[in-house]
Amino acid sequence: MSGAVREQASAFAPASVGNVAIGFDILGFAIDTLGDRVTVSRRDAPGVEVSAVRGVAGELPREARDNTAGRALLALQEALHPSFGFRVEIDKGIPLGSGLGGSAASAVGAVVAANALLPQPLSRLELLQFAMAGEAVASGARHADNIAPSLFGGLVLTVGIDHPRVKQIPVPSGIRAVIVHPHMFLATAKARAILKLSVELSDFVWQTAHLAGFISGCYTDDLDLIRASFEDVVIEPQRAALIPGFQEVRRGAMEAGALGCSISGAGPSMFAWTLEGTVPAVLAAMRREFARQSLATDHWVVELASPGARLIE
Ligand code: HSE
Predict the structure, then answer these.
(1) So where are the chain's domains?
(2) Which residues line ligand 1 (CB under 6 A)?
(3) Is 129 exposed, middle or buried (0-12, 13-18, 19+ CB in 10 A)?
């Protein structure tokens, strides 16, 4: 497929919840009402210039190789050798260190916008690799649990790193996601560095059972199976202490009727899945418990189906 030559394009890339409790580094869903906007322009000189970072995280690195959007575009250039360079402007809507996939969204927005400038645009699956290379700058590891939902939308499972397979998972239509962001900063690299490198055999069995049950429950509209499987026995217990009030927020959400509640990505944001009718009670409980920790919050309530990153005017 060939496209008309464009000088500039802008893309919106949504925030996302990585891990979704039981799919560490492989499962995530998009938060379509929150995101970053990235504008990419052609420039005659080769290379990548990050010319502006605005919005809620203006202190991000301007050096292209240290910036997730810049690094993603450098990876794209290394592979494709276009005859021109890229200038990038980033309007951050996603707070830094929030666990809402901000690093991934900037990288995704950059590759989607840059793709519109290429004479032979790539598929979303091809773009995924470049965005993953970008996000690795922030987290110190290559994983697609934020990149894939931001790029594709919805609840997304990614299998593999070098040749990833991406699968959008259907979610029962009555389920809503409630996401609450306490106003504190938590570096992804720090939240990864504390993790043990080995897993107890019994925990491995529970975690794989929960992942399988969760995915099966999604495909078969089995809310009871989703609820029973919505528990991370490996990662969450190690990270809980990094989030003030974690246990109380989780308990509050569950007592209010949530199907499950866990950490969004590396935290400190937390999320719950719940049926539409119990959204107000679950949201109120989560916000109340963070407030008891003297933490102000932002929140979003979204449906699970969403279109993913797209070009905007
Ligand atoms: N899966 C990642 C983690 C998400 O939990 O560390 C944050 O990048």
Answers:
(1) 8-168+306-312, 175-303
(2) 18-19, 24-25, 139, 143, 145-146, 188, 191-192, 265-266
(3) buried
Q: Which residue has the tokens 């790539």?
A: 122
Pocket test for ligand 1, best of 145, 186, 190 (most atoms within 8 A of CB): 145
- Residue 163 burial (C-beta neighbours within 10 Å; 0-12, 13-18, 19+): exposed
CATH number of this structure's domain 8-168+306-312: 3.30.230.10
Task: Report whether 40 contacts 88 (CB < 8 A).
Answer: yes
- Tell me which residue has its CA closest to atom 1 in ligand 1: 25
CATH superfamily of 175-303: GHMP kinase, C-terminal domain (3.30.70.890)
Q: What is the pLDDT along the chain (313 residues), one digit of tens a residue?
A: 444 579 999 999 999 999 999 999 999 999 999 999 999 999 999 999 999 999 997 688 889 999 999 999 999 999 999 999 999 999 999 999 999 999 999 999 999 999 999 999 999 999 999 999 998 887 777 889 999 999 999 999 999 998 999 999 999 999 999 999 999 999 988 999 999 999 999 999 999 999 999 999 999 999 999 999 999 999 999 999 999 999 999 999 999 999 999 999 999 999 999 999 999 999 999 999 999 999 999 999 999 999 999 999 8
- For residue 45 the two structure tokens come to 């000189």
Does the fold of domain 175-303 match that of domain 8-168+306-312? no
User: Whole-model pTM above 0.90?
Assistant: yes
